[in-house]
């Protein structure tokens, strides 16, 4: 088996093969160990029997020693007399004399060569010899008290046969166990891998374009469940990212279309007035002056739109702000004065927040020109979209409370915040429009007729600029409004 072939196997096959292989090695080691221990135990029994027989033979005259005990017919006798000790006598010179007859009435066959009897007798330990037929014998030599040597021998064929039977039986049982184990392991692994199979099926559906598919196994107490949960989370985020990308592309297309429309309108007007002048339709005098004035107004309007677009692009790049301590009370007071100049007949007031009695300075770290633009845009938005008699109120203070709102851009800062409110008593907004007022080039009432002039008209970018600047300062903008109840834009800025 080459590594490449192994790598092509399925996980199920690998797990089953590895399990069976490990158990096979364990069973083989167990059988081998049992065989070694059993052979050692049986050999030790033979040695004790040899030692007992040799002791009696050495202390009695030749021929007077008790005959070896015949087999008892028990399980260890194997039905033959090869497992019975055999007694041989030798003289002091090591010459063979005779053999003791057993209780079977037979004389043992000649003993294989056993070497120097004197050295074996001095050693006193049993040893193993082999005969011409390939059998093995356990032999012990003892010096007789009357001279000469007694040699006790016992065949190990019975021991070898017992050990062989153990190995064969163990091998057969092990083979059966391995077969059953392979079947059981395959079934268990198949059940265990079902969640992975379901994940594979889900992944295939997702690859085919079904992004709503999810892995059904999400039990956090199992490995596959935790994996399934992680995959589902990843898939949800991927789908959300794709949805956000699609929505962003749709907004970009809409933005480009709206920007093109906004630029086309003044360009068309300028082109028309220029064509009128070229054809002599605007002779010197009041008509020409009016034509030139209209061209200037449309040019200013287009210039303002381009400036707003460039500002938004700059804010989108998140360039570092020039942060310095900014007194919001001074900024608000200047904005009120500018609004009075712009709309002398409008009631515009500067007040403390609701629940606060004194209007006090509030300082925040920020970019002062940008924060001035925030207030200017909010007031300009209120002037533009409310009737002439509607009042506008700027409120300033510190707060830790959360007021109600229907739309929000950015995240509320932690801890105490500086709050600027621009509230009007105009017609208000419906909820479906309130949620989109911070979108670029969005108008709540696109069908209404706008006033001409750069100062009075708007391209729908003022509130988008407000949201971008406030978000860049780490704050948020909220809108609380309802039809017929006016609108309140609330800016929350961090104090630190």
Account of the protein in words:
- It catalyses: ATP + protein L-histidine = ADP + protein N-phospho-L-histidine.
- The chain has 496 residues and is α+β, with helices and mostly antiparallel strands.
- The protein folds into two domains: 3-179, no CATH class; 320-494, Heat Shock Protein 90.
- Helix content is 49%, strand content 15%.
- It contains eleven helices and 13 strands.
- It has helices at residues 3-8, 11-58, 117-123, 157-192, 194-207, 223-278, 286-316, 328-342, 368-384, 431-434, 462-472; strands spanning 86-90, 96-99, 127-130, 136-143, 149-155, 324-327, 348-352, 363-366, 392-399, 407-410, 417-424, 476-481, 487-494.
- Strands 7-9-11-13-12-10 form a six-stranded mixed beta sheet, covered by helices on one side. Strands 2-1-5-4-3 form a five-stranded antiparallel beta sheet.
- Helix 2 packs antiparallel against helix 4, helix 6 packs antiparallel against helix 7 and helix 7 (286-316) runs parallel beside helix 11 (462-472).
- It is rod-shaped, with a radius of gyration of 53 Å.
- Residues 65-82, 103-108 and 446-457 have low confidence and may be disordered.
């Amino acid at each position: 088996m080459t590594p490449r072939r192994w790598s092509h196997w399925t996980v199920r096959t690998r797990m089953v093969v590895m399990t069976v292989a490990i158990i096979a090695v364990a069973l083989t080691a167990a059988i081998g160990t049992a065989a070694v221990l059993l052979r050692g135990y049986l050999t030790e029994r033979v040695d004790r029997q040899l030692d007992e027989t040799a002791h009696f033979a050495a202390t009695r005259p030749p021929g007077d020693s008790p005959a070896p005990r015949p087999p008892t017919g028990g399980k260890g006798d194997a039905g033959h007399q090869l497992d019975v000790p055999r007694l041989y006598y030798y003289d002091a010179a090591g010459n063979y004399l005779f053999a003791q007859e057993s209780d079977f009435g037979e004389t043992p066959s000649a003993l294989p060569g056993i070497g120097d009897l004197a050295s074996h007798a001095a050693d006193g330990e049993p040893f193993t010899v082999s005969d011409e037929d390939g059998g093995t014998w356990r032999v012990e030599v003892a010096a007789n008290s009357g001279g000469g040597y007694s040699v006790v021998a016992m065949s190990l064929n019975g021991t070898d046969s017992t050990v062989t039977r153990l190995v064969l039986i163990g091998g057969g049982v092990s083979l059966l166990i391995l077969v059953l184990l392979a079947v059981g392991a395959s079934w268990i692994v198949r059940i265990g891998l079902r969640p992975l199979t379901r994940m594979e099926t889900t992944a295939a559906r997702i690859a085919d374009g079904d992004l709503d598919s999810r892995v059904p196994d999400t039990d956090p107490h199992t490995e596959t469940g935790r994996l399934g949960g992680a995959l589902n989370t990843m898939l949800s985020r991927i789908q959300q990212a794709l949805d956000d990308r699609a929505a962003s592309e749709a907004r970009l297309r809409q933005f480009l279309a709206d920007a093109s429309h906004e630029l086309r309108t003044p360009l068309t007007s300028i082109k028309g007035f220029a064509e009128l002048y070229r054809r002599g339709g605007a002779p010197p005098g009041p008509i020409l002056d009016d034509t030139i004035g209209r061209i200037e107004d449309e040019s200013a309007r287009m210039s303002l739109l381009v400036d707003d677009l460039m500002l938004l692009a700059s804010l989108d790049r998140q360039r570092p702000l020039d942060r310095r301590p900014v007194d919001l009370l001074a900024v608000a007071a200047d904005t009120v004065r500018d609004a009075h100049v712009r709309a002398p007949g409008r009631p515009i007031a500067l007040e403390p927040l609701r629940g606060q009695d004194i209007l006090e300075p509030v300082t925040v770290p920020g970019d002062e020109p940008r924060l001035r633009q925030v207030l200017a845009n909010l007031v300009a938005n209120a002037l533009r979209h409310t009737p002439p008699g509607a009042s506008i109120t700027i409120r300033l203070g510190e707060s830790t409370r959360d007021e109600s709102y229907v739309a929000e851009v950015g995240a509320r800062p932690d801890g105490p915040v500086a709050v600027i409110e621009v509230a009007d008593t105009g017609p208000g907004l419906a909820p479906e429009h309130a949620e989109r007022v911070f979108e670029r080039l969005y108008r709540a009432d696109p069908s209404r007729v706008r006033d001409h002039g750069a100062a009075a008209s708007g391209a729908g970018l003022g509130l988008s600029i407000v949201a971008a600047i406030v978000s860049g300062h780490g704050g948020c903008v909220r809108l609380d409004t309802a039809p017929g109840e006016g609108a309140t834009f609330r800016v929350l800025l961090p104090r630190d």
